[in-house]
# Entry
Amino acid sequence: MIDGFEQMWAALAPVGRSASSGGYFRQPFGSAERECHAWFLEQCAARGLRVEQDGNANTVGWWDGSDPSLPRVLTGSHLDSVLDGGAYDGPLGVVSAFAAIDLLRERCVVPSRTVGVAAFAEEEGSRFSIACLGSQLAAGALDPERARALTDRDGVRLEDAMLAAGLEPELGPSPLLRDVGCYLELHVEQGRDLVHREVPVGLASAIWPHGRYRFDFTGEANHAGATAMADRHDPMLTYAMTALAANKQARLLTDGGSDTGRATFGRIEVSPNATNAVPDRVTGWLDARCESDATLAQLVAAVEKQGQERATRDGTALTVTAESVAPAVHFDATLTARLAALGGGRPVIPTAAGHDAGVLATAGIPSAMLFVRNPTGVSHSPAEHAGIDDCLTGVEVLADALAELAR
Ligand code: HGY
Ligand code: MN
Ligand code: MN
# Structure
């Protein structure tokens, strides 16, 4: 099992890795992500898994159970990354799923239920802006018409990107999920809860509601030298104040000493983006997350209000568009308790990171998540990490869970 896991990990390690940062660029339908997908197909073939792909670019390798009439058990994760992401976010769940199947076969387990390993498309929303795009389309949570209108940073439409990658787009609810009775996703922890508890593996209780909001600031382009300071309508100032306001408003949300809100401007575009010109447009994307749906709405409203007030002072304008908002997810408590009990009582912890498991849970598929300890808690960065011993423990826990669910 150790060899199998390490071989798979070593095969994926160079794919899409930046020589300068060591981080990963596996954007959907690009060459690195397609190489990961080809690797996924090879792994399915090596295990005799029956491969099915839907028109949303989600792929599942099925290990047929002895009773095809029973609801199926799905596991897996995603292979795409954020820009300059870590090695573990996504691939750990896919590699662990294959390793868990190998372990079950070594143990001569014959599942009654069919078990699938999924690779969901564009989980990070790094190219088409909407998080969990593939699973949302598959689950019927995202209107295909809306998805058809999405373009990447170069103006390429989603379906055209799929066609260019040799796929046949047919966006919408997926037959892959039709007979799925439960979904179990293993993921690197994106935090340090398990480090503090000194345990290698835990389960997820809930996902914070979170959203992405586009803030378009417009003003008046002008000469950086010839325009008096008092005569400017500079949207960069409005943006800068709004970014500070977002940080402050999120910090103000605390509950019993622990912070309960997050707000980040991690991406901006400036036009014309010239050193010697006052810009006429700044677009910033706010990623906001809170413990409750109501607090998330309040946080975003407070940031927008401060942005609008500053826009009035700057003589600029601000419009805010919600691009992708996911409500709070509470994972299936019965399923989670059953899996937590398998290990003699594993911790069950919330997360502020989004996952395909959250989308499937919201769509009514009983879902649960396993988290593998991350020593630094760092994620969405080349520094993301999990120790090999913890990864192998994760595989064993996943195998035990699949054996239980597929009985
Ligand atoms: O952005 C997120 O929460 C993620 O890791 N998909
Ligand atoms: Mn991620
Ligand atoms: Mn992920």
Notes: The longest strand covers residues 261-271. The mean pLDDT is 97. Residues 2-208+328-405 form a domain with the Aminopeptidase fold (CATH 3.40.630.10). The first helix runs from residue 2 to 12.
